[in-house]
Amino acid sequence: MNSRALLLYSSEPERTSPAPLPDLIPGWQWSIATTPACAHQQIHNHNVRVGVIHLPPSLPVAFDQLETLTASHPQIEWIVAASPDVLSETDVGRFIASTCFDYHTLPADPDRLAVTLGHAWGRAQMRERCRDTSRPGQFGMVGESAPMLRLYGNLEKISNSDAPVLVQGESGTGKELVARAIHRHSSRAQQPYIAVNCGAIPVNLIQSELFGYEKGAFTGANQRKIGLIESANGGTVFLDEIGDLPFESQVMLLRFLQEHCIERVGGHTPINVDVRVIAATHVNLELAVAARSFREDLFYRLNVLRVTVPPLRERLEDVDLLADWCFEVFASEKNAHVQGFSLRAKQAMSRYGWPGNVRELINRVRRAMVMSESRLITAEDLLLDAPSSDTPASASLEEARDQVERDLIEHALQINKQNITETARQLGLSRSTLYRLINKLELKQ
Ligand SMILES: Nc1ncnc2c1ncn2[C@@H]1O[C@H](COP(=O)(O)OP(=O)(O)OP(=O)(O)O)[C@@H](O)[C@H]1O
């Protein structure tokens, strides 16, 4: 067997003879470290998956250094080996309970220790395999469910075309991710990708932001400005929340889609622009057309290739993968002792309806990684223990979504000391969307 373990032997060699553990366990290769710094080095040099921390009697334990060591190497399963006296110390017990896979009582029982090492190694391997499958797939998206495989198949075909795309899906499902993926896999990948949130630009500025303006076009137009569409020339423009585009601006976009040319505000010369348009909306544009808030002709121009991103509740089998992926991506922010999810937490996640979709999952997991007080994140850490008392069991999807958004935003505002820019960044929202939600949910700032 080539399994390698690390032995962190933290006593001073001149005071205690070296631990005989490695000699007792055949079939294992050992890297020996006498300080946490040396242990970091050994771990970097060797493929270590199991670490044994020997805590000698009557020496103070540098828990802060041990916690840094274990948190920096979440791929390793840790075992504490110590005498019964040391193991009975409260701080040692707390460290083992929060951070370690197991403990071993000294003097060593070689057979038992070999079994514990084997289990720890197996668990580390298993975690490694799960981690492999949680890496984003070829489109940079996490998910292997049937709806996602269908989506990837569609993206493959759409990326090879140059026609406009309409991406539909609920908020937080990954529409922007889909737009980026289409661009990156298209022949325009090396050219600009410009994302515009149509709902975030003040109505009076939309036209000049999208199409630019000439010097002197209006008071304050001291010099020519190139608009967002023109600056994406050769590449792709992603028009998010297209349903929020004011009716008057829709006609200019229609003209651009028909004639592939734009006119800057205050300009009189049409400018040819070669840009692929990907538009996204979480509102039903057919209904908006029926309600006459969205131009029918523009709808048909945009709706050439349509992609629908499935809501998370229709692909609950991906929740596990997404949670593990998220844990890995935000590992540097987590509380040092947090090592993963409890089984109950995973079960609670796979039963939940995720009205806020992947964005909500990311926010809940990130919060839990920071706030959890145990080694494994619990369902309570994810705020998924029981329906909130404010959310009746019969709450509509809309009410449930509002409640979740209210909890997450309130919490993020609190953590970020009411700083809107930081809170918006943490929640993956634009500042204007955050303001809109704060007003809608009547949150106090
Ligand atoms: N399948 C996925 N894999 C990995 N991350 C995802 C996936 N889907 C969404 N995300 C992440 O979830 C968050 C929300 O995604 P995105 O902004 O693309 O959603 P959206 O549908 O455009 O939302 P909105 O309609 O509110 O603008 C982002 O952080 C995104 O990276």
Automatic annotation (TrEMBL):
The keyword ATP-binding applies. SUPFAM superfamilies: Homeodomain-like (SSF46689), P-loop containing nucleoside triphosphate hydrolases (SSF52540). Residues 141-370 form the Sigma-54 factor interaction domain. The keyword DNA-binding applies. It comes from the Bacteria. Keywords: ATP-binding, DNA-binding, Nucleotide-binding, Transcription, Transcription regulation. InterPro entries: AAA+_ATPase, AAA_lid_NorR, Homeodomain-like_sf, HTH_Fis, P-loop_NTPase, Sigma_54_int, Sigma_54_int_dom_ATP-bd_1, Sigma_54_int_dom_ATP-bd_2. Pfam families: AAA_lid_14, HTH_8, Sigma54_activat, VpsR. This is Sigma-54-dependent Fis family transcriptional regulator. The lineage of its organism: Bacteria, Pseudomonadati, Pseudomonadota, Betaproteobacteria, Neisseriales.
